[in-house]
Amino acid sequence: MQIEQAFDGLAPNRRTLLKSAAFGLFAFKVAGADMLLSPAEARARRAALSKLSAEDAARLEAFGEALVPGARAAGLAHFVDANLARPHGESLLTVRYLDVLPPHHTFYKAGLAALDAASRAVLGGPFEGVSAAAARPLIAAMLPGTIAPWTGPPPALFYLAVRSDAADLVYGTRAAFARMQVPYMAHIEPATDW
Description:
This protein is mainly alpha-helical. It is built from 9 helices and 2 strands. α4 packs across α8. The two termini are about 20 Å apart.
């Protein structure tokens, strides 16, 4: 039985949404219908975004893919968007733990706008339009804070938040450990996968 079918008939309430997080599912709207999907499925089905614009999503996916290969296919933009739509206490985003005050969508939007401005100034075009190889010097300048121009949140903080979200999504599950052929040996076994 598919996980999607396990929630058939359940009203989209807080309890259902919390249960869905145990399976790594989030509420998305596809062709006007509410569905519980993984971020990768939401991306494949072109689920509607609620907090990020299409441009923001493309830029976030390009940045995430440059930092953690596989982030785009794993549905990074949908993962971030779904978590931005959740109450602060239920968000799985790394920014929640970095002392960044909510609302967090302003953090991501400001960081993505600053990344775009820096890319246009340094690389001559939008970040999502350049290759990962061409973007490396720009990304490398984020950590020491030497990226210019930059008008968003501290560039190293933005880098850390997006990289951590992408790594959590791509590598942070038992399935990812199995794909990498690495034994999953948690110090404290989680009650469920997310």
